[in-house]
Amino acid sequence: MKFLFGFGATLYVELAKIITCVAYSVKAILKFVFALYRSFLKRESVHMWIFTKTGFISCVQHREKPDTMIVRARKLEHLAAFVGKQHAAEIFTLDFSDYKYRIELSRAIFQELVANQVEQLDYPNFKNSISDSEHDYRQACGATWEVCYHAFKSND
Question: What residues have CB less than 8 Å from 43, skipping those under 6 apart?
Fold first, then answer.
């Protein structure tokens, strides 16, 4: 069967598939751009990364509430391990963000949680303290160490 310009139905089906893929790609790109824009509008200041043997978190001061910290993580388990059972129910998600899992904490509670991490420090080698079940996290910490080693080693 010939359609417009003499092309067969197969070509039109394939063209429809391509258009659908492009539409999904554009939708994904727009979601990403919107998330970046939203992040830009809600800029947060005073930024800190914390690597513990149970995970990686990012901490920032809330832009509009100076006595509030926003603690963020890419993995729920990492944030839950940092805040503990007492605060785990307060964790919320922010889809399409680089740090999907978040919690808002008063500065005083945040300081207590950081102090708890210091009190629990019980290892002579950080990378080796990371659980075998967290292989990807251990690899990421090793890579971070290596980048910092080369960036900060002296030429003496």
Answer: 63
Q: 69: closest CA among 88, 97, 41, 44?
A: 44
Buried b (16+ CB within 10 A) or exposed e, 53-82: bbbbbbbbbbeeeeebbbbbbbbeebbbbb
CA distance 147 to 138: 14
The span from the CA of 126 to the CA of 37, in Å, is 36
Nearest C-alpha neighbor of 108 from the set 155, 79, 62, 69: 69
What backbone phi and psi angles, to 5 degrees, belong to 10?
-60, -40
H or E element at residue 18: helix 9-41
Model confidence pLDDT, tens digit, residues 65-93: 989 999 999 999 999 999 999 998 999 99
Q: What is the pLDDT of residue 47?
A: 72
